[in-house]
Amino acid sequence: MTDSLSRARLIALAVPAALLAGAYSFEYFGGLYPCEMCWWQRYAHYAALGFAVLAFMVGTEAVTKWLVRLAGVAILVSGLIGAFHAGVEYGWWEGFTQCTALSVGEGQSALDAIMGAPTVRCDEVQWSLFGISMAGWNFLISATAGIVVLVLSARTGNSRVG
Question: What dihedral angle (degrees, nearest 10) is formed by the CA atoms of 14, 18, 42, 53?
Answer without folding.
Answer: 30
